[in-house]
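step: validate -> pass
step: tokenize input -> pass
step: predict -> running
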Amino acid sequence: MTTPAYTDAAFIAEVHAWARETCERLGLEISGPIEQPHIRPWSTVFRVPTASGAVYLKVCGPSQAHEPRLTKLLQREFPTLVPEVLALHPTHDWMVVAEGGKKLREVFSPEQMLDEWARILPRYAELQLALAPHVDEMLGLGAPDQRLSRLALDLAAVIDDERVLRFDEPDGLTRDDLPRLRALLPRISAEIETLAALGLPDSVQHDDLHDGNVLVGGDRRVIFDWGDANVSHPFLTLTIVLRVAAFRVSRPESAPEIRRLRDAYLEPFGRLAPPALLRDAADRGVRLGTLSRALTWYVVVTRIESALSAEPYAVSGSLQRVLEAFV
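step: predict -> pass
step: emit ->
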């Protein structure tokens, strides 16, 4: 599928026209030139300054087409932790959201972010629990289905698709790794069965939760950029957030400071299962979340032509992490 020409003059003119129309309808006076600070193959973002503060218009490509309406659903069900969606385009996968503040990593030091995550993660878990009854609605909006029952089979399809794989780069896959990955599938399936047996509900899973996707506005924290989000086991979220938090402070994920974040996240789930079982399940979720990232990247590079050239090692790198998690 061809990516929209995000720098094409006609496209930009159309975006600007809708931005002006939307701001006028919302009673917002545009106070300066509209900027385009973010351009990626899968999305682009325009910043619209207004007399009441900036608003942001996001254009989502095919792999993230669900994001505008999913974000609106999240706002409806859990408004305190997600962006305020001001408008959805009636025919395009575009949205206008209110400014949420500065990125977490721009406001706090790596050590301070540990305390921030300890406060944010339980609230994110509450969001997941609140959204669990809305799985069918999220799937109906186009959120990818990455529920546990699909993970191993979908991973096998990625391993077999050499169009998206790159070999023999530093710290990357080799051709010898492919049979190793295939040999892991029975173990991965057993891990999936064990995690599923706990019976926790599927829900929204952000899939790219890190300090660049949380905004700080005064006392408010906003989790944004839900374009990679899917419907899956909630604990798969922990893969990225714990990895990045550990990297920022140069500690292993097994360090007590990082385990504290895992346990803080698990607190709301304590009404569904005992703490020891939850901790074991969370560790399985961290391993299985590597599959989710590989599947997410696979969708991106196969649905958007320019994405593979922009991120040629994304799928291979994600599969390398699957190997590291299970070997």
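step: describe -> The beta strands are 35-40, 43-48, 55-60, 85-88, 94-98, 102-103, 203-205, 214-217, 220-223, 230-232.
step: cleanup -> pass
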